[in-house]
Amino acid sequence: MFKCLSKQCFSHSSLAAVCSSPRIRQVGIFKQFEQNQSNRRSIIHRVNPSSSETSSICSATTFHPSLPSDNTTTRLMGMSKNEMKQLLEKTHPHIASSFRLDEIYKFMYKFGARNFDDITVLSKADRKSLSEFYSIDLVGNIEEEVLSKKDKHTRKFLFAFENPKFLKSENQQSAHATCKDHDADVDTKTISSSKKLTKQQKPFNKVEAVYIYHPPKATDYFGRGTVCLSSQVGCSLSCAFCRTGTTPIERNLLASEIVSQLVSIKHHLQDFPIYMNEDERKKATTEKSLVNNIVFMGEGEPLYNYKNVKKACEILSDGCGISKRKVIVSTSGVCNLIPDVVNELGVNLAISLHATTNELRDKLVPLNKIFPIEVLFDTIREKCFKNNTRHITFEYVMLDHVNDFIDDAQRLVHLVKDIPCSVNLIAFNEWEGSGFKCSPNERIEDFSKFLYRHGINAPIRYSKGQDILGACGQLKNRNENKESVVLQKKVATTLKTSI
Predict the structure, then answer these.
(1) Of the residues 235, 242, 335, 472, which is catalytic?
(2) 52: DSSP letter
(3) Active-site residue among 208, 299, 301, 395?
(4) CB neighbours of 177 closer than 8 A, spacing ≥ 6?
(5) I want to staple 438 with a disulfide (CB 3.0 to 4.6 A). Which of 155, 224, 425, 428 is the partner?
(6) Measured between alpha carbons, how far is residue 432 from residues 234, 242, 334, 436 in Å?
(7) pLDDT tens digit string along 364-389?
(8) Beta carbons within 10 angstroms of residue 17's beta carbon
(9) Coiled coil where (predicted)?
(10) Is 472 part of the annotated catalytic residue set?
(11) What is the CATH number of domain 141-498?
C-alpha cells in the first residue's frame, strides 16, 4: 500500500540545500505531489537497524532519527516553556532569563527549527553550547505514509515511538503496570472490564495520525487543513462500531509524542517558515498554513490521558501558535474530566454520543455503563455551561437500523434542549469485520432535517480517507486482535436482531 517517496540518502550538506529551497506554494502543493511523488523531500531510513524485528521496515521521515544522535543530550521537544526555563537555568542561566528562551521556544514549535543552527537569533557560541547539552529532535518516526487515491489530499501516517517501558527479558512487566506508571491519569481497572491490557511489551509502539485537506472555497482562499492526533496506543473503550476499539490499550502517549505527530506532519508537508523564502516568511500566518485545525480524534480516549493531552494543548497553543478555538478534544463521556476540558483547557469539546437510550448506548459505547446518559448531560448542563457559553459538538454515527429512526431523533432533540450545540451526523465508515452498515443517505437526510426543524444545527459529515482506512472510526495500530473483531461483529448482529 505504501510506496517509498525516495530511496536516496542525503548527506548533511545536500539536506541543508534541500531545506533552504523555497517552500512549495500552498495552492500547487498537492498538484506537485500527484505529478511526481519522487520529488518529495524526505529521508528514507530504517526504524532501528539493530533490531531484527524492525530492520526490514522502510521508514519515511523528514529529518529526525527516533533517538538523539548523542544519548548524553536532553531532548527539548515536548517541553513547555516553563519546563525548558527550569532546565536552562541550571546550564545556561543567561538564556533562561532573557528573550532568547522565547526565541528557542518559538523556533522549535512555530518556525520548524531542526537544530540549534536554525535558530539564527542566537549567537554562534550559544548555539554550539546548547547543542552540547540539548537537542530539539522529534520523537519517533513517520514509518509509513498512505495517500488517498479518492480525494488526492487526505493522507494517513503511521508513527513508530520507542516504548519507554520495553524490557528485553522474557519475564516482562505487564502492560497494566506500564500504563499506570506511564503518566496515566486514571486507574486502568475502571477503564473497561471487558478488555485486558496487553501483556507483552514491544520495542516500538505504533499509532496512526491523519492529515485532511479541504480545498479552498470562494470565501477561504487558503483552504483548511486538519490533523487528527492520537493520544493513546490502542484504546480501552471497545466501542462496538470503532475499528480502533479492536486493539488493546498499551500505554498513554507522552506530550512529546503527541506534539511530534503534528510537527512531523508539518515538516513532511514543508509547512514551516524554515522552508520559505524571506518574502513568504513575512506573509506567513497560521490561517495561511496547510495545518490550521487540530482534533484529538485518533487512537485512544484523550481524557484517560488528560495530563499529557493538557500539556500538548498548551504547547499547540503557546508554541505552535494554533488558536484554542481551532482545537477539538473528543471524548466518549468521561464525565469527571469533561468540565476541565471546557473550563481549564479552553479548547472545543466534542462528545461521542451515538445513542439516545442507556440500553443502546451501553452496547455501542460501553463507557456508558460507568457514566450513563443522564449523568453525562447533567455534567454538561451544570458544570460546563454554568459560567461558559462555549459551543459543544455531539457526534452521532449513523448505523443502519440501529440508531437512525425518527424516534431516536425525537429523543435527541429532548436531550440537547437548551444546550448551545451542533450534532454532527457521521456517515458510518465501514470496515471489514465491523458487522454494521451505514444508514442510507435518504434516512440520514431525513434525520438531519428533523433536527434542523427543531432548531438544532445538524450537518452531515462524510469522512475523507475511507479508501485508506483513515476516516473517523477506522484508525488502528498494527497489533491485530482478531478476537475483539469477532466480538464486535457479534454485538452488531445482536443489535440488529433485537431492534
Answers:
(1) 472
(2) T
(3) 208
(4) none
(5) 428
(6) 18, 11, 29, 10
(7) 999 999 999 999 999 998 887 765 55
(8) 11
(9) none
(10) yes
(11) 3.20.20.70
